[in-house]
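Input/output pair, single chain:
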Amino acid sequence: MARVVSGRDRDAFAALFDHFAPRINGFLQKQGMEAGAAEDLTQEVMAVMWHKAHLFDPAKSSLATWLFRVARNRRIDGLRRDRSHLIDPHDPFFWPDAAEAPDDGLDARQRDERVRLALADLPDEQADLVRLAFFNGLTHSQIADSTGLPLGTVKSRIRLAFARLRRALEADPRVDADG
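Output:
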């Protein structure tokens, strides 16, 4: 370790790595870490040995004691940061969505096509505003700013477009009263 501290000796570091890495990895796995996580943490401990070798004091402990203490402390730090135990796997957020019935998908596609056709029948000045509002998510004020139209004109054109869309969709016998 003295050669690593004084001269950043890579051969000395490699010898220490070959000696201690398998032992630290085994220690971490015996502490309950999965093999991949133990390997990652072992690499981290070895990096600490290289980058912070100057902090090692042989008067206070052996190199083995120092490295195993670093490994133990890093493992504890990781456990403290890990909040996965706070996640409730039974939370409805994690439940998969129910499968869509085949006829629901067909109904949705047919409804989308009817709306698309009804939008195509709108005057361009109304259709453009509807697209800006509902496909681009702009507010009426944002539409007025971007188009240069007065806010009242934007609102009235969108209202007229909705009235036309409603009439067109209600006239289609395939559309039920709810939608």
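Residues 144 and 152 are 9 Å apart (CA to CA). The chain has a mean pLDDT of 87.
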